Amino acid sequence: MYQYSLSYVKKLFSDAIKDSQKSDEIDERIEILIKSITKSIYNNICRGLFENHKMIYSFLICTSIEKNKGEIDLPAWNFLLRGAGMYDSENQPENPLPKFLKDEAWNLAYAFEQQYDDKLEGFCNSFLNKASSWETYINSDDPTEARIPCGFNDELDSFEKLIILKIFRPESLGFAFSKFISEKLSPYYSESPPSTMEGLYADSDKITPVIFVLSQGADPTNQLIKFAEFKNNIDNFKYISLGQGQDSIASSLIEQGKKNGNWVLLQNCHLFKSWMLTLENIVS
After folding, report:
1. Which of 33, 62, 109, 150 has its CA at 20 to 30 Å from residue 23's CA atom?
2. Using an 8 Å Cβ cutoff, are 225 and 256 in contact?
3. Residue 266 has what pLDDT?
C-alpha cells in the first residue's frame, strides 16, 4: 500500500543531519543525530499514513530499535506476531480456562512457558491452582495497568507482558502498544504528529513536490492560499483544476513556475489520470 523511494529517505536523512544540533562531543553528537533522524522520518512518513496505521508504524520503529539493542529476542517477537507457531505439544494438557481462553491462546501460553521456562516455571499450572487470581486479572478494567498474578509480573519485561495480554486480553494490545512506545521511545511517538503547512513547506524544496491524498470533500486550497499570504507569496501562487484539455495550461504554469519560482497547485488530478505519466516525467 505504501511505497517510499530511496532518494526520498536519503533526503530526509541528509536534512535531519544538516538541521540537527551540533556538538563537538562524538557520543553526544551521535545521540543527537539518532533522535533527529528518527523524529524526522517518523514525522514525514506519518503524513502519508492512514490514521489507524500510525500506531503500527510507531510500534515498528520502537521495536526495531529495541531489537537492535538486544532487548527483544526473536522468539518473543514471533510469539507476539504469529502466536504459538511450532512447539512440542505432546504433553500439553487440556485448556484449564476454556471460559476465558480460546484454544489458540492456550497453545500460545503453553509454548510461551516452554520457551521461557526460567521465567515462567509453573505458569500454565497456575491457571488451575490460582484460577481466581487469573480471573481477576482477566476481568480487570485496565489489564495494561493490572499486575500479572502469581509473581510473574516481576519476572517478565515490558515486551513479554504484551504476550500475556495477547493470551488473555488481545483487544487491549492497541493501548498497550501506545504505553510501550511511550516507555521505551518517547510519548511523542505514541501520538499522531501534527501536520501543518509550515511543516510541509520546511520539508519540501523546488524539486520535491507535495502531494495531497484527500478523502472525499476535503480541500486544502484555502489553507494553501492563507499560507501563501502568510509567506507574502500570494501573487506567485497559481492553481488549476485538471480535466480534459487542461494539460497545456498546466504544463505552461509549471514551466513558468520553474522560471519565476511560482507555487503551482494542480487540483483534481484523479480527473485526468491519462496525463499523470506526463506529469511524472515533467517532475523527474
Report:
1. 62
2. no
3. 94
In 3D space, the residue among 207, 210, 212, 213 whose CA is nearest the CA of residue 282 turns out to be 207
Cell for 253? 504554469
Position 204 scores a pLDDT of 82
266 DSSP 8-state letter: E
HEC-encoded secondary structure of 94-120: CCCCCCCCCHHHHHHHHHHHHHCCCCC
Q: Cα–Cα distances in Å, from 253 out to 23, 25, 202, 262, 284? A: 44, 49, 23, 8, 16
Between CA 143 and CA 116, with CA 156 as vertex, the angle to 5 degrees is: 120
Q: Residue with C-alpha cell 507555487?
A: 263
Return the bridge partners of 208, or none: 205
Strands (E), the chain: 237-241, 263-267
Burial of residue 86, with CB atoms counted within 10 A of its CB: 0-12 exposed, 13-18 middle, 19 or more buried: exposed
Could you tell me the three cell numbers for 179?
504505553
Residues 86, 77, 144, 121: is their CA dihedral positive or negative? Answer: positive
Q: What share of the chain is helix, strand, coil (3-state, %, to 5)?
A: 60, 5, 35
Reduced to 3 states, what is the DSSP secondary structure of residue 246?
Answer: coil
Residue keyed to cell 505519466: 277
The Cα 264–Cα 266 span in angstroms is 7
Measured between alpha carbons, how far is 39 from 36 in angstroms, rounded to an integer?
5
Backbone angles phi, psi at 208, to 5 degrees: -120, 95
Could you say which residues of the chain have pLDDT below 70? none
Which residues lie across from 205 on neighbouring strands? 208
User: What DSSP state is assigned to residue 187?
Assistant: G
Is 33 exposed, middle or buried, given 0-12, 13-18 or 19+ CB atoms closer than 10 A?
middle
Predicted TM-score (pTM) of this structure: 0.82
